Each structure stands twice: as structure tokens, then as C-alpha cells.
């Protein structure tokens, strides 16, 4: 098991990064928030888990052990695989997932693309007594925001990758930008926050 990687970032994409470890570039699949937090040429340390299949070895990386542990725990539910587990962490941080499951918040869980009402109910049934309660521990510092001309594209691509159409994604991003005045103050918004806001729009 590869529990963590540390090294220079060779590439940072929308939902994946390449980290050089001992002269080898390791492709690590991440949430958009984690990918946005690293920069090419800088050192990154990621908690990881290796998913082994007959025809593939896929490495998933996270900003901390709590995200990795949640990624692994939700996959103990029948019907939940790595892709869906990663989508959950793209939409909600670990404490929000704990709160939704322990509080039987089906509506919150079904905002994740790929989780229907039955799947959410099964997740609550199987994990409610195992998931624990929200820790209330503040998350890591917010990642540096991308340039204003870039954040819309990153959030739209993330939404498309999570299952929505390009038009739905663009419309949601526009509503979020207008509603928050994201570009009106000369600053650059945080891509993770904008992604979560867009997902809330789409979940209405």
C-alpha cells in the first residue's frame, strides 16, 4: 500500500497531479480542490490510497489523512467505488459527509452526482453507526485561488467531469459568479468554494 507521496509537482491538472518520487512521476487522481492547492515546481505531500484492479493500479491522493480515510470508508458501502467516493469528497468535506450520514440527510447526499435516493439510504443504513460524528476540526488552509480568467473554466470542467452537461455547468458558474460578486472586487475566488457553491445551485 502506498500511504503517501511527497515530491516536486511535475503537472497539476483539473483532477489529477503528477508528483516526482525518486525520479519517477506518479500520477495521482485527486479532487479539484486538492489539485488547485498544488503548484507545478513546488513540493507537495499527499495522503494516498492505491486501488488495485485486475487491469489497473490507480493512485488517489488527498490533502490529509481524514479525506483519505473517508474515501476508503464510504467504499465499504455496496455500489460505491473510487469514482463515486471521489465525487463525494469533491462536493463535501469529510465532516459534512459525517454530518449528512449520521443525521440521515438524504437530500445532501443525493446532491452528489451518481447518488440517488436509494443509494443515499443504503449509505446511511450501512455507515450511520460507523461513521462517527463531525470532529469540528478546521480544515487545511484554503488553496491559493487561480487567476480570475481561469476559475470559471476550472469549475465548469469539474462539473462536467462530475456528470453535468457543459450548458448546465456554465449556467451554474454564471449564477454563482453573479450571486457572489466573485469578480466584481478585483479579487480571485477560491476554486473549491466556487465549485461547492455551483454544486449547491445544481442541487436545487
From TrEMBL:
Q: What's one GO-annotated cellular component? A: Holliday junction resolvase complex
Concerning InterPro entries, the annotation shows:
DNA_helicase_Holl-junc_RuvA_I, Hlx-hairpin-Hlx_DNA-bd_motif, NA-bd_OB-fold, RuvA, RuvA_2-like, RuvA_C, RuvA_C_sf
User: One Pfam family, short name please?
Assistant: RuvA_N
Which segments carry the region annotation Domain III? 145-204
The Helix-hairpin-helix DNA-binding motif class domain is annotated at: 72-91, 107-126
Q: Where in the cell is it found?
A: Cytoplasm
Protein keywords: ATP-binding, Cytoplasm, DNA damage, DNA recombination, DNA repair, DNA-binding, Helicase, Hydrolase, Nucleotide-binding
One MF term in the entry's GO annotations: four-way junction helicase activity
BP GO annotations: DNA recombination; DNA repair
Q: Which Gene3D superfamilies match?
A: 5' to 3' exonuclease, C-terminal subdomain, DNA helicase RuvA subunit, C-terminal domain, Nucleic acid-binding proteins
- Tell me where the transmembrane regions lie: none
Q: How does it assemble?
A: Homotetramer. Forms an RuvA(8)-RuvB(12)-Holliday junction (HJ) complex. HJ DNA is sandwiched between 2 RuvA tetramers; dsDNA enters through RuvA and exits via RuvB. An RuvB hexamer assembles on each DNA strand where it exits the tetramer. Each RuvB hexamer is contacted by two RuvA subunits (via domain III) on 2 adjacent RuvB subunits; this complex drives branch migration. In the full resolvosome a probable DNA-RuvA(4)-RuvB(12)-RuvC(2) complex forms which resolves the HJ.
How does the record comment on the protein's domains?
Has three domains with a flexible linker between the domains II and III and assumes an 'L' shape. Domain III is highly mobile and contacts RuvB.
Membership in a protein family: Belongs to the RuvA family.
Name the HAMAP family for this protein: DNA_HJ_migration_RuvA (MF_00031)
The free-text function statement in the UniProt record for this protein reads:
The RuvA-RuvB-RuvC complex processes Holliday junction (HJ) DNA during genetic recombination and DNA repair, while the RuvA-RuvB complex plays an important role in the rescue of blocked DNA replication forks via replication fork reversal (RFR). RuvA specifically binds to HJ cruciform DNA, conferring on it an open structure. The RuvB hexamer acts as an ATP-dependent pump, pulling dsDNA into and through the RuvAB complex. HJ branch migration allows RuvC to scan DNA until it finds its consensus sequence, where it cleaves and resolves the cruciform DNA.
**Record protein name field:** Holliday junction branch migration complex subunit RuvA
Organism expressing this protein natively: Pedococcus cremeus
Q: What is the lineage of its organism?
A: Bacteria, Bacillati, Actinomycetota, Actinomycetes, Micrococcales
Amino acid at each position: 500500500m502506498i500511504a503517501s507521496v511527497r515530491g516536486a509537482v511535475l503537472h497539476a491538472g483539473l483532477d489529477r497531479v503528477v508528483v516526482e518520487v525518486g525520479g519517477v512521476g506518479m500520477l495521482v487522481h485527486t479532487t479539484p480542490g486538492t489539485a488547485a492547492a498544488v503548484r507545478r515546481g513546488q513540493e507537495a505531500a499527499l495522503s494516498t490510497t492505491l486501488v488495485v484492479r485486475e487491469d489497473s493500479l490507480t493512485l488517489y491522493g488527498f490533502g490529509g489523512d481524514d479525506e483519505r480515510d473517508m474515501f476508503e470508508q464510504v467504499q465499504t458501502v455496496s455500489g460505491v467505488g473510487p469514482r463515486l467516493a471521489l465525487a463525494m469528497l469533491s462536493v463535501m468535506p469529510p465532516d459534512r459527509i459525517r454530518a449528512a450520514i449520521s443525521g440521515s440527510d438524504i437530500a445532501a447526499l443525493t446532491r452528489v452526482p451518481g447518488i440517488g435516493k436509494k443509494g443515499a439510504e443504503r449509505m446511511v443504513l450501512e455507515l450511520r453507526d460507523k461513521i462517527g460524528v463531525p470532529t469540528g476540526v478546521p480544515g487545511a488552509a484554503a488553496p491559493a485561488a487561480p487567476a480570475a480568467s481561469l476559475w470559471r473554466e476550472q469549475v465548469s470542467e469539474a462539473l462536467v467531469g462530475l456528470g453535468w452537461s457543459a450548458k448546465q455547468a456554465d449556467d451554474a458558474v454564471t449564477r454563482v459568479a453573479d450571486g457572489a460578486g466573485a469578480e466584481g472586487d478585483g479579487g480571485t475566488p477560491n476554486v473549491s468554494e466556487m465549485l461547492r457553491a455551483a454544486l449547491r445551485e445544481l442541487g436545487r
